[in-house]
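Curious: explain these tokens?
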Amino acid sequence: MNFSWQNKIGNGLYGNVYNGILPDGSEVALKRFKNCTAAGDATFTHEVVVIASVRHVNLVALRGYCTATHP
């Protein structure tokens, strides 16, 4: 995944969102968190749980997540 400014499609309090394409051709949005803290980790976990439980035609589906602390 290329985290360059050309692929950046949004940003928020906890990090930036980037556009990407998977090897199968699927277009994805990837949120990359920055400055993680214990509170930030809890927020991330909560967001994953909520997004994974929601299904709607106008919302993107969660394809996966990673908690690695290094690139």
User: Anything to note?
Assistant: Residues 17 and 31 are 4 Å apart (CA to CA). The first helix runs from residue 38 to 53. The mean pLDDT is 82.
